[in-house]
Specification:
153 residues; single chain; 2 helices; six-stranded mixed β-sheet
Length: 153
């Protein structure tokens, strides 16, 4: 009988298996505008069709996740946090994409066999390449500083 074991947190993320303390949610924020504001701790308004009037561009934000973690409920709070990190009080979500990709990894296999000529059982380990298809969801947009955005300075 064969039993197989995935090795490492990266493989667990790639397979989107939760409960092991690994998260596939990753984000980045790049300051692109001349305005350099300190990080913000207040509320961030979310816009999806047009930017708020008078909004000044602070930077580009992207958040992505793999498999079951790639849902709006997981991505949007991280997106808003990254906007606040750039000092923004408004987030313009310009794009949400889902794509599928093949993830290659090494897997360990454990096996047993009859040791000839004795009656004892021998055990072995083998590593072999494996692959799995995963869905990656990406949310991208801009961080903005908007004047008097619904009571948020």
């Amino acid at each position: 009988m064969h039993r197989f074991l995935s090795i490492g947190c990266g493989i667990v993320m790639a397979l989107a298996v939760g409960g092991f303390g690994c998260s596939s949610v990753r984000s980045s924020a790049i300051r692109t505008g001349p305005l350099n504001l300190p990080a913000r701790s207040g509320a961030v308004g979310i816009y999806t069709t047009t930017a708020p009037p008078g909004g000044r561009d602070l930077g580009f934000v992207e958040v992505h996740a793999v498999g079951e973690e790639g849902i709006i409920e997981n991505l949007l709070p991280v997106f808003a946090k990254r906007v606040a990190d750039l000092g923004g009080n408004a987030a313009l979500v310009e794009r949400v994409d889902a794509r599928f990709q093949i993830v290659n990894y090494w897997q360990a296999g454990f096996y047993s066999y009859n040791c000839w000529p004795s009656r004892y059982r021998c055990y072995g380990t083998a590593a072999y390449p494996a692959s799995h298809e995963v869905m990656v969801v990406t949310m991208s947009g801009r961080a903005l500083s908007a004047p008097n955005q619904e009571g948020v300075p």
